[in-house]
Amino acid sequence: MSELCIRSATLNDLETLLEFEQGMIKAERPLDPFLSKGSLFYYNIPEMIISKHIHLIVAAFKKELVASGYVRIENSKHYHKNPQHGYIGFMYVKEQFRGQKISGLILETLKVWAKEKNLKELRLDVYDSNVRAMKAYERFGFTKSLVNMRIDI
């Protein structure tokens, strides 16, 4: 896929990124009974684009945006060995482009940025039942470290 370009997101990408966000929400609704009904938004995408502590990137194939992802610098818990870490999110690949290792290219680009910021650790959250995403993250080198559990009361 030599015509694939990974680059920083710009405000000109906003319309497509909003579509990606809704695509994520649509895919995650069946995985998470705790998501509220009705219209949802996970991110303030314009703020993410201009933020100095977030690196939001897109993958474009022949000028068509096909994927996204970000890394955000976060403070770690005071008892963790690394005072800060990179948090990965907004990993989205258009359905017709899945299975082509684009998410790996995005993760590698985010990892390079995080290293440039002297971060030593990346973290992310993924639904346990999202087997395809979990396999992609494991191929990249991520391992499970903590399971988040919930109950309605």
Task: Detail the topology: elements first, then pairings.
Elements: E1 4-8, H1 14-28, H2 45-50, E2 54-61, E3 64-75, E4 84-93, H3 102-116, E5 122-123, H4 131-140
Parallel strand pairs: 4-5
Antiparallel strand pairs: 1-2, 2-3, 3-4
Helix pairs in contact: 3-4
Provide a brief overview of the structure:
By secondary structure, this protein is of the alpha+beta class. It contains four helices and five strands; from the N terminus they run E-H-H-E-E-E-H-E-H.
The assigned CATH architecture is: 3-Layer(aba) Sandwich
In percent, how helical is the residue content?
25-40%
Mean pLDDT over all positions: 95
Characterize the biggest β-sheet. Answer: 5 strands, mixed
Number of strands: 5
Q: Strands of the largest sheet, in order across it?
A: 1-2-3-4-5
Structural class: alpha+beta
Q: Would you list the SSEs in sequence order as H and E?
A: EHHEEEHEH
The CATH topology name reads Aminopeptidase
Q: Determine the strand fraction and express it as a percent band.
A: 15-25%
Rough outline: globular
CATH-level-4 superfamily name: Gcn5-related N-acetyltransferase (GNAT)
| Spans of at least 5 consecutive residues with low confidence | none
How many domains would you count in the coordinates?
A: 1
Descriptive notes:
The chain has 153 residues and is an alpha+beta fold. It has a single domain, classed as Aminopeptidase, CATH 3.40.630.30. Helix content is 30%, strand content 24%. It contains 4 helices and 5 strands. Helix 3 crosses helix 4. The longest helix is centred in the first third of the chain and has 15 residues. The relative contact order is 0.16.
